[in-house]
Design a protein that fits this description.
The protein has helices at residues 12-16, 21-34, 60-71, 86-94, and strands spanning 3-10, 38-44, 51-56, 76-83. The chain has 97 residues and is of the alpha+beta class.
Length: 97
C-alpha cells in the first residue's frame, strides 16, 4: 500500500482543546481504521508543524478523504505527502529513459 506523511498544524481551536488531544488522537485512529488506513506512526514535533502521522492507505483518494475528514473537525490543518520507499525510488529511477 502507498505510504503517506501527513503534517499537522494545530488551529486555535486545536490549541484550546489540546488537553483532549489523546482522546482526539484515539478517535482519529478509529477513523483511519474504518477507512482501511493503517497508522504506522504518530509524532509530536517541534518546529513549523505540530505533529506528523505516517500512514498507509490503499490509494490517493482514500488519503485525501481522510485528510479532509480530519481537517473538517477544526482542530488541525493538514498537508499530506505521498511518500515513496527506497525500493519504489529505485524502481522509478530504473524506469527513466
Amino acid at each position: 500500500m502507498p505510504t503517506y506523511i501527513t503534517l499537522l498544524t494545530f488551529t486555535q481551536q486545536g490549541v484550546w482543546n489540546i488537553k483532549d488531544g489523546p482522546t482526539l488522537l484515539d478517535a482519529a485512529k478509529k477513523a483511519f481504521q474504518s477507512m482501511g488506513v493503517e497508522i504506522k506512526g504518530f509524532y509530536l514535533v517541534i518546529g513549523q508543524y505540530d505533529a506528523v502521522v505516517i500512514s498507509e492507505a490503499s490509494d490517493d483518494e482514500t488519503a485525501a478523504k481522510l485528510a479532509l475528514s480530519i481537517g473538517s473537525l477544526g482542530n488541525v490543518r493538514t498537508e499530506t505527502l505521498r511518500a515513496f520507499t527506497e525500493d519504489e525510488f529505485r524502481k522509478i529511477i530504473a524506469a527513466l529513459p
